[in-house]
Amino acid sequence: MRKYYRKNLKLEPWQDPDVTPYLILENLSKDYEGVPILKNVNLEIYQEEFFCLLGPSGCGKTTLLRTLAGFEEPSKGKIYLNGVDITRVPPYERPVSMMFQSYALFPHLTVQQNVAFGLKQENLTSSTIQERVEHSLRLVEMADLAKRKPHQLSGGQRQRVALARSLAKQPQLLLLDEPLAALDRKLREKTQFELVNIQETVGGTFLTVTHDQEEAMTMASRLAVMEEGQIAQLGTPQEIYEFPNSRYVANFIGTINLFDGMVVDEKDDHLILDVQDFELPAAVSPAVSVPEGSIVSMALRPEKVHISKRFTKRDYNHVTGLVEDIAYLGDVSIYHVRLENSDKTMQAMIPNNIRASEGKITWDDQVFLSWDPSNVVVLMS
Question: What's residue 10's pLDDT?
Answer without folding.
Answer: 66
